[in-house]
Structure formats: C-alpha cells, structure tokens
Amino acid sequence: MKPINYLSMAVAILAMGGFTACSDDTIEVDAPDQGNGIVEVDGAATYMQIAISDPSTYGGRAITDDFDYGDASERAIKDFFLFFYDQQGHLIGEGQRSLVAEWTLEAGSASGSHDQMTDKYTRVVKVVQSVGDSKPYYVVCIANPTAALTGSDDNFATTDAIRTVARNGFLSDDKNFIMSNSVYFDENNIREMATRISIDQLYDTEEAAKNSNKPVDVYIERMAAKVTLTATGNSGDSNDIPVANGALDIKDENGNPIKLTFVLEGWGVNNEEKTSWLVKNFLDANNNHMFYDVLKEGLSPQGQVWWNSPTNHRSYWATTPSYWKQSASDFPENVDKWRDDEDGEFDTDHDWALNYKSYQEILDACQSMGKVFINKSQYCMEHTISSVTINLPTRRNAATPSVVVIGRYKIADAAAYTDFYKYDDGYGVKLYLEGAMISKWAKPQNIIKKIQQKQNESGDYVDEWGDPEDLETADYAKIFKLEHPRKAVRGNELVPARFVTMQLADDLKGDMLGEHFKLVYLSGSSSEGAYKVLEGILSQTLRDNLDISLYQYCDLTEKFEEGRCYYNIPVEHNYTAPEAGSEDTSLKAGDYGIVRNHVYRINITQITGIGNGVGNKNEPIIVQSKSKDNFIKTRINILPWKIVTQSAELKPLD
Asked: Measured between alpha carbons, how far is 256 from 433 in angstroms, rounded to an integer?
C-alpha cells in the first residue's frame, strides 16, 4: 500500500493588499534538517490543512500601509492547483487541481488592516506516496490556472524550474486573475517562494488534519497590476480635467490669439512587458537568484527596506523578463527605428522587448469604458527596470512603463477637428494650418521655383525668370507636402514621430502648373549651382536630393493629426524627488516601475501645456523629446493594490 499523508492545508489564499509580492523559485534552506520524514508504508497518505490567502487587497508603496480590498471580480477564484515538493525541491507525484467549492471561505473585510482585508480559503488536502519517498516539505499554489496546466507539467518538476515559467497574459480562460505564491524574504532574510511545510503540520488521518490549529498558510497574489486614472475635482461623471489659466492659449501665424479646447479620448498603459513570470522573481542579469543582502545593497542605499515586508507576507519589487535589458535592439529610441529603411513604411516585424501602443490601439482599448474615462481602471503586466537602464538617456523613455493620456484639440469654435502644426518661428511658438505652414517655408526657399513662358515682340515664347518668391499660393499644395522625413532624407538622424518637414509632392512633374509654366530646380549649391528645367517625372535620386535640401532649409514642425495629441506619464513606484541642491540626480532601481498586485492611482491635477503631437494615429507611441535629453516631466500618484499614489500635471515634452 501507498502511505497517505494528510495535510490540513489551510491554504490561506490571502487576498493580499496590493499587487506587490512576487518570488523566484529557488529553495533556500536556512539550516540543515532531516526534512519531514520518510514514507514507511506504501500507499500511505499524509493530510494537511491548507489555508490559502488571496490578494483581496491591492497595495501601494511598501513604505506605506495603504491597501485596497478590491472588487468581487478581482478576488474571484474558480479553482486551485497545488504542487507538493520534497526538501530537495522535487515534485511529489502530480499537482492537484480542486474547485473553489471544495474549500471553506473566510471572507476578508473591505477595510481594516492588511490581514483583515484578506480572503482565506481552507481545506484538508491528501498526498498519497510510495514507501521511501520524502514527505511533503514545500507547496506551490496557482489559483485560476489556465486549462492547459496539468499536474505533470514539466515546468513544475522542481521548484527551481518554476522560475522560468512565463505567461503572455494574466487572465485565465474564464477571465479570472491568475494568482501564484507571494514571494518575499522572511524574518531571517530567507526567500519564501514555495511555502514551507513543517513536520507538525502533517497528519496521518483526515480528521486530525481537519481539527488542526496549525494550517499551512499559503499566501498568493495576482500576476496583474491595476492602474486607475483620476482628475482633481472630477467624481467620474465626465472627462473634465482642470486646465491652468492660459495653458492652451496660442497664437496663429499672424500673432492673433487662439484658444484650444482639449477633449479627452482615453488613456492606456504603454511600454508594457510582453510576458510575465508566473511566480515573482528576483533574478540577476544571468538569471541567478539574488539573495537578500544583494537586494538590500541595491534597493536600500539609505538602509530603509521599503521593498520587503515579512509581516504582510509580501515584497514590493521584482525583476521582470526585460529588467536587465538595455540595448537599442530591445528598447527603440524612436519610431524611426521601426520604419522600413526601403520605403519609409511602418514595419511591425521588430522583436522589441516591450509592447508599444499606437493612439488608435489605446483608443480602441478604451471602448469598454464607455464614454467616460476618468475614475476608471485598467490592468497590465508587471514591469520593472534596472537602475542601469533607467539612467541611459537613449533608453529610459522607451524602457519605463508609462500611462499615455490621449485626446484632441479643437481650434476655438471650429466645428471639426483639423490638422495643425506647432512651430517656433523665432518670435514664439505659433499654430499653423497646413497651407500657412507650407507657405511660410515655400515662399523664401531657393531650391525649386516656377518660371513662366511669355511671348516676346516676335511672338515667340521665352522663359521669364522670377525671384525666389515667385511661387503663388495656389501652387504650394501642388508642389510641396508636409511629412515625416524618410530614411533617405534624414540619414542616421532619429526624428521624433510627431515632427514633419516640407518635402516635394508625390506626383510632381515638370509641366504640372500648366502649358506655359515650367518647374526648375537648383542643381548644386545655391552659390555654385544653376537652375535646370524639370523634365517629366522626378527620378527617385533627384527627389531624394531635393528633399534633403528642403529638409536642411525648413527644419521641423510638430504635427497634430486632426488635433490629436498625447501626454506621457511615467509610472512612479517608490520615487522620491532629490533634495534641492542635491548633486545626485540619478534614478534608482525602484523609482519607476509596475509591480504585480499593486494599484497605481494616478491623479491628474491640471493641464499646464499643450501636449505632444500625434503625426500618425496608427504608429506606436515611443516617447522621445526633440532634445533627446529630456526625461518625462510629469509626476503621478499611484495607489496600489498595495496602494501607490502620485499626482501629475499634463505637460508637453521639450
């Protein structure tokens, strides 16, 4: 017979306040022992009472004690999968799936302490083994597993193997939140990932386990994080955001004042991890587990251990799959890195480390919210970054998780949205419509001109040359267009996606202005070259050369396609602004990031400037300031499921 061991596993599925705790899967033995004994009778069963505590609460920064119980859908559990391991971390038999109805629920409360806001599920669990097997020593719990998970899954063969188990989503097939063991360091600074089972929690009979007052407490947390957007003075019945006095005032090309009206169209989490570890990890760059002292040195330079809480059975930081990445092939500095060098079209084949969303994708994802986007929440993957990456000016914008607020501007009382351009003409930033912008650059340029043939006294047509300003308004739209400079024009320069320049129209031909007109172009430099008549359709080589000359002459203007714009808010996790006058302005690990089982509540206090233009609503938003040195200037308040709070003003980049 196989001995049967009963674990009265009070799998306390602790609904942990805040999406915060995660762990890696290596077993750390703090002191040698003999394990929990050896099975002496074949087919014997060990019983244990397991209490699973699920993360009903969402938390914020570890340095605070703010937690949120969460709503019913966030706490819902359909079934559990339990995997038992011996002292060496080897799987005992197969994992056990059980429906939540087989467990006894002790619901937490919507307010109170961390422990009071914890749902607890309790059940007696039986483990049947063969003679000579080591009795259960560790247990790992997966709540709301996917249907594909089986008890013999190779990914769960050892506790260390779990470390590399990743998921490309955080919901089960039934759209419930997947949850797994909370990972943290205990009072002795030993990593807790697989929950330790002591010998006095194992029983030979089901009745003894049922009557036990020593359940095996297993703490689990959601893989996902939660982000909520609020606005000062808005209770959630509208999309109104306060606007600082004069923040959206601008002048037209003639210096006349214009008022813009901002219409919120949605928001979303950008720069999001593509996958997440099923169980939280603390891994170094070589995928080895980091121990407490190493983490403390890197995360607690001032000695304050904000990132770990043995009392709450959770941690407030983690390393995610892209944590140590820092190359240009992982984090594109600019959308130009994404364009096909051959034809300038957007190429989706790049294997970047993160998901970068377009204006349209964010807009589409907000449709489920209805027509009001304030006081609404979205869920996302865990995403943290190293101190090395976040201090690289050409990487940190694309590597840092952010909330992108999208919307459109209406000009004064205009009935419809329209393209407009923001340009500093040397006398201040002004708003130009497309025709006015082209006219400004086209009139004085000396690169391509029109000449008119007139009859002389003999009746013959001869060319009559004009000055560089001889193009008429009606000609401009035929000859020029505004577009983002393609690779052949900009070379290796990376131009932020929202900026455009003046280029030649697509169907430019020598006789396009009429029978007695010709287009001429400057061949060579303006000091040495001569004008040549454009015959027929431009060759690609000639077009490239002329567009390069126009780009060098015209510079860049910021485009707002049909008034579209965005504001980018990097998500703070444990950020504290440096003291005034401090010489150390570097960012630290933990300053920015999104950690599982946290709620990040971002409150917009006001709009203090015109947002960043969107040149193409279907291209991904990759934040790059024109100066390249500018990091995000917006601050937010995060309230996690462990609650993190920050406040933000909506400002443009430089």
From this structure: 13
The C-alpha torsion from 405 through 411 and 415 to 416, rounded to 10°, is: -50
Closest CA to 227 of 648, 649, 641: 641
DSSP string, 362-406: HHHHGGGGTT--TTEEEEE--EE--HHHHT-TTTHHHHS-EEEEE
Other C-beta atoms closer than 10 Å to the C-beta of 5 total: 27
Is-contact 271 354, C-beta < 8 A?
yes
State the greatest distance between any 2 C-alpha atoms of the chain, in Å, as a whole number: 122
391 burial type by CB count under 10 A (0-12 exposed, 13-18 middle, 19+ buried): middle
Between CA 560 and CA 500 the distance in angstroms is: 10
Question: Given a cut of 70, is residue 243 above it in pLDDT?
Answer: yes
pLDDT digits 0-9 by tens, 491-502 = 888 898 999 999
pLDDT at position 296, please? 92
> What proportion of the chain, given as a percentage, has pLDDT over 70?
84
Asked if 611 and 564 touch (Cβ cutoff 8 Å), the reply is no
CATH of domain 4-222: 2.60.40.2580
- Residue 596 dihedral angles phi and psi, to the nearest 5°: -55, 155
Residue with tokens 């901002």: 262
Domain with CATH 2.60.40.2580 in the chain: 4-222
In this structure, of 3-17, 141-155, 300-314, 398-412, the range with the lowest mean pLDDT score is 3-17
Distance CA 398, CA 385 (A): 11
Q: What is the pLDDT of residue 22?
A: 33
User: Burial of 253 by CB count in 10 Å (0-12 exposed, 13-18 middle, 19+ buried)?
Assistant: middle
- Round to whole Å and give the CA distance between 28 and 87: 10
Residues in CB range of 529: below 8 A, 6 or more apart = 522, 523
In Å, what is the CA distance from 303 to each residue of 66, 114, 195?
A: 22, 24, 28
Contact 438, 482 (CB under 8 A): yes
Q: What is the pTM of this model?
A: 0.88
HSE of 177 in the Cβ direction (CA atoms, 13 Å)? 27
